[in-house]
């Protein structure tokens, strides 16, 4: 029989165990869902992203909750969850300045089509397939990928492992675009090795292997809340490393 919330709070107050903390967080996931449903996702942000922001707020709420005010935790947590979501959306809005709405829509369309093809063929997609579906030539596709790099600050999910697809790049603008893209790709892969094992595992499997959070959590033997935290920490470290490049 699973312990009640009150029992979990008592145990957490006494032990400050991460395992118990994660059980507490998971017991309040409904609060994250409620706050996520209230917010309309802006262009370039998925509902799942907003949900993960909310989970981080919930984790902080549990960590900072006064043991004498547990009875008011739900109201307090809702405020922290909402605040965390708003903070991340503000960062996103600031970061995405200079990238037009139409470009954001094309980036999300590219990502959506990529996922649809992979599901349909049960295999990884290559750039040629994406280009065909979007009706883009190599120059247009390279430009879109470069804009994705700028928009994301670092583009992990825009990278495709496609050793069989050879680009025919001329010595004009395409060559410069390709050079910049290849350099950014090398930087991300280089810095990925500087993360802690679990952070690297989460980011590699979530973005490159396209596994969902529950699968990664099961593989690592940790909670989904812990995966969200590892993802958040790893991404922040990568951004810091790339921005200092």
From TrEMBL:
Residues 24-93, 192-239 form the RNA polymerase sigma-70 region domain. GO terms for biological process: DNA-templated transcription initiation. InterPro entries: RNA_pol_sigma-70_dom (IPR014284), RNA_pol_sigma70 (IPR000943), RNA_pol_sigma70_r2 (IPR007627), RNA_pol_sigma70_r4 (IPR007630), RNA_pol_sigma_r2 (IPR013325), RNA_pol_sigma_r3/r4-like (IPR013324). The keyword Cell membrane does not apply. The keyword DNA-binding applies. Keywords: DNA-binding, Plasmid, Sigma factor, Transcription, Transcription regulation. Coiled coil: none annotated. This is Sigma-70 family RNA polymerase sigma factor. Pfam families: Sigma70_r2, Sigma70_r4. It comes from Priestia megaterium (Bacillus megaterium). GO terms for molecular function: DNA binding; sigma factor activity.
């Amino acid at each position: 029989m699973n312990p009640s919330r009150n029992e979990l709070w008592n145990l957490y107050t006494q032990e400050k165990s991460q395992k118990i903390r994660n059980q507490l967080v998971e017991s309040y996931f409904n609060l994250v869902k409620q706050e996520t449903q209230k917010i309309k996702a802006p262009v370039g942000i998925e509902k799942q992203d907003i949900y993960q922001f909310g989970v981080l707020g919930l984790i902080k709420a549990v960590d900072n909750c006064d043991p004498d005010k547990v009875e008011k935790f739900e109201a307090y947590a809702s405020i922290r969850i909402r605040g965390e979501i708003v903070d991340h959306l503000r960062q996103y809005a600031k970061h995405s300045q200079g990238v037009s709405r139409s470009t954001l829509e094309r980036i999300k369309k590219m990502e959506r089509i990529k996922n649809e093809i992979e599901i349909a063929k049960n295999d990884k997609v290559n750039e040629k397939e994406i280009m065909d579906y979007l009706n883009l030539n190599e120059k247009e596709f390279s430009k879109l990928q470069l804009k994705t790099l700028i928009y994301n600050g670092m583009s992990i999910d825009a990278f495709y492992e496609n050793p069989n697809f050879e680009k025919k790049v001329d010595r004009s603008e395409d060559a410069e675009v390709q050079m910049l893209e290849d350099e950014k790709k090398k930087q991300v892969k280089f810095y990925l090795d500087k993360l802690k094992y679990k952070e690297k595992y989460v980011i590699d499997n979530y973005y490159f292997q396209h596994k969902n959070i529950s699968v990664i959590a099961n593989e690592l033997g940790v909670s989904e809340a812990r995966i969200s935290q590892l993802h958040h920490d790893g991404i922040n470290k990568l951004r810091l490393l790339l921005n200092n490049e």
